[in-house]
Amino acid sequence: MDSFDISHKIVSHPHPKNPDAIFSILIPSWKNFQHLKLLVESIQKNSSFHHQICVHLNGHCDQSVSFLKQEKISFTISPENVGVCVGTNAASSLAKCDYILILNDDMYVAPGWDAYLLQQIQKRQGDLWCLSGTMIEWEDKHNPCVIVGKNYGKNAETFDEALFLEEYDSYSHEDWNGSQWYPLVVPRSIWSLVGGLSVEFSPGMYSDPDFMMKLWKIGVRDFMGVGKSRVYHFMSKSTERVKKNDGRTQFLLKWKVSSSTFLRYYLRLGTSYSGILDNPDPQTFRMVQWKDNIKSKLKAIF
């Protein structure tokens, strides 16, 4: 992606939030109207509480603009696709709630999704935490954080909403370590402290593990995936429409550790939730660290 410059001017369209809103929900969207509409409608009818929705439109879409204005939803818009990092950060400029929550535009939230997150938030003292909901996906990619192989449709047009609403809470899934996956919620103070998503990862590959590392660096050790907070994820292939950044290498060069090492040994991603995470014992993955160090030096040279 070309560097962000003044030609990508972002325009804001704020709207007053409901005074009872709990989450500021950030949704970057790239000409994906049917999915965006379905997601917003699911938030409106399946949430237990009021929330502020803040959308960023990557490129002008008449249908999306008309819909957001009609629903009185705050949004920002750029004439071109500026990627999920810049787009999400732009949407966050409209956020007014104490909690920042990120959703992909190709999701559908299940009833009570927000209540289960808020229950966990209310158990915590201070701001050093990060929570995620649990995705339900039609494809099995062997992700332990996800309820896999539950096909309710591969896009908004084929979504079997009635069947999903009948079955979504019938699957067992425990709380899990690592957070990272969307929906993801952090205190707004923490979002501001780490500067949101890192724009150097634009258009967005590996910006999520980078965000987790930034949280780790400021002292966050409570990364919880909430098993009962559920969303359906259509797994749309919008990333196939962009030139991807080499996020894996960027992460390695920036943090001097590979993303796989960080997710496995630091966040313990996908394992049963165990509360506050300890710093990993370097002796348990000394050889992996050595390999990561060599890789980072070689990448820096070549």
How many separate structural domains?
A: 1
Mean pLDDT across residues: 93
Text of the CATH class: Alpha Beta
Q: What is the CATH superfamily?
A: Spore Coat Polysaccharide Biosynthesis Protein SpsA, Chain A
Helix amount: 25-40%
CATH topology: Spore Coat Polysaccharide Biosynthesis Protein SpsA, Chain A
Q: How many distinct beta strands?
A: 10
The end-to-end distance, rounded to whole angstroms, is: 21 Å
Write down the Rg. 19 Å
* CATH architecture annotation: Alpha-Beta Complex
Multimer state: single chain
3D architecture notes:
- 33% of the residues lie in helices and 19% in strands.
- The chain has 302 residues and is α/β, with parallel strands linked by helices.
- It has one domain (6-301): Spore Coat Polysaccharide Biosynthesis Protein SpsA, Chain A, CATH 3.90.550.10.
- Strands 1, 2, 3, 4, 5, 6, 7, 8, 9 and 10 form a 10-stranded mixed β-sheet that branches.
- The chain is globular, with a radius of gyration of 19 Å.
Q: What is shown here, in short?
A:
This protein has 302 residues and is of the alpha/beta class.
Descriptors:
302 residues; alpha/beta; Spore Coat Polysaccharide Biosynthesis Protein SpsA, Chain A; 10-stranded mixed sheet; 10 helices; globular
Topology (SSEs and partners):
Elements: E1 11-13, E2 23-29, H1 33-46, E3 52-58, H2 62-70, E4 74-78, H3 83-92, E5 99-102, E6 107-109, H4 113-122, E7 129-137, H5 161-167, E8 176-177, E9 184-187, H6 188-194, H7 207-217, E10 222-233, H8 247-255, H9 259-266, H10 286-301
Parallel strand pairs: 2-3, 2-5, 3-4, 7-10
Antiparallel strand pairs: 1-4, 5-9, 6-10, 7-9, 8-10
